[in-house]
Amino acid sequence: MEFEHISVLADQVVDFAPQASQSILDCTLGGGGHSKRLLEKFPAAILYGIDRDAKALIAATESLKNYKEQIRLKQASFSELSECLEYWGKPRFDYILADIGLSSEQLARPERGFSFMNEGPLDMRMDPDRQHLTAADLVNTSSEHELLKILRDYGEERFARKIVSTILVERENKPFETTKELADMVSSVIPRRFQKPGFNPATLTFQALRIAVNDELNELGILLKEAPSRLKPDGRLAIISFHSLEDRMVKHQFRKWENPCVCPTDLPYCICGEKPLGRVITRRPVNATAKETAENPRSRSAHLRVFSSSQMPHD
Ligand SMILES: C[S@@+](CC[C@H](N)C(=O)[O-])C[C@H]1O[C@@H](n2cnc3c(N)ncnc32)[C@H](O)[C@@H]1O
């Protein structure tokens, strides 16, 4: 079965990989697109890869079948990465990549419940076999306060209050079950004059619920904690994110690694003893070119940031 996904910023991801990379970790295999490009460039490398979605793992295994001897793939989320690394014998990596968010495949399958364009169950779990909480559970059972927090914090939805109060009333009559029921309700409560052409009014609500269902910011936080100590000296960590909350987290963490000193700025020298872990390679996020966004509109919101570990080993 075809896996529907075009890898974003693929040339840049390959170009940022350290020369002669021997050991690579792809934390978001998806259809294996980036991994394949990296193995084409580094045909002798060992590539380790995870994805929390079993279907992505099947697709990546198929797309990397010519590299059978060199790949080690496992179904896991970022929060399970440390167990995977233990299982693989604690390898260190020249290059760690994470292309976070959804694949087009996940979005395109109505039965996964991510899309407001297609009728499907209100699900949104990236790993439906092991995650229990669905978007429908959140919408139908969360308190007003919890729902407001989700829509505001993860969706930055300015009509959060209106949407939540309508959810609370409507779910008393009938629980929300499908993507379309929710999307239609959101469209009906956001005033027409605030609806932008080409932008579905339910976009931010769906984004917020998806982030909450998959605990995405927490997952990213765990990845950011785990990654630096897993890099070889001079190894690189590349992260592609698709919305501002994630990009902000990556930017701040990279800066902190580069300059971890917590001494008051008026002290003449550092007494905190915090040592930099390396340096930020991308002062600004790398974005897709006009050509790429024309060919793959999904790439428009992709931001790539790269951090290089220092030459000294650190834990
Ligand atoms: C944008 S796609 C990756 C596409 C891939 N780079 C390619 O070129 O084919 C993102 C993938 O990351 C996975 N993912 C998202 N969050 C994850 C997490 N916390 N742990 C593991 N996998 C995750 C999703 O299931 C999805 O398959």
What this model shows, in words?
By secondary structure, this protein is of the alpha/beta class. The chain folds into two domains: 189 residues, Vaccinia Virus protein VP39 (Rossmann fold, 3-Layer(aba) Sandwich), CATH 3.40.50.150; 82 residues, Orthogonal Bundle (DNA polymerase, domain 1). Helices cover 39% and strands 14% of the residues. It has 13 helices and seven strands. A seven-stranded mixed sheet has the order 3-2-1-4-5-7-6, sandwiched between helices. β2, α3 and β3 form a beta-alpha-beta unit. The radius of gyration is 21 Å and the shape is globular. The model has no long low-confidence stretch (mean pLDDT 95). Bound molecules: S-adenosylmethionine (SAM). S-adenosylmethionine binds next to α2 and β2.
How would you concisely characterize the structure shown here?
The chain is an alpha/beta fold. The chain is about 40% helix and about 15% strand. The radius of gyration is 21 Å and the shape is globular.
Low-pLDDT runs:
none
Question: Tally the helices: what do you get?
Answer: 13
Bound molecules: S-adenosylmethionine
Helix content: 25-40%
* Total number of domains: 2
CATH architecture annotation of the largest domain: 3-Layer(aba) Sandwich
Which homologous superfamily in CATH is the superfamily of the largest domain? Vaccinia Virus protein VP39
Structural class comes to alpha/beta
Overall average residue pLDDT: 95
Strand residue percentage: 5-15%
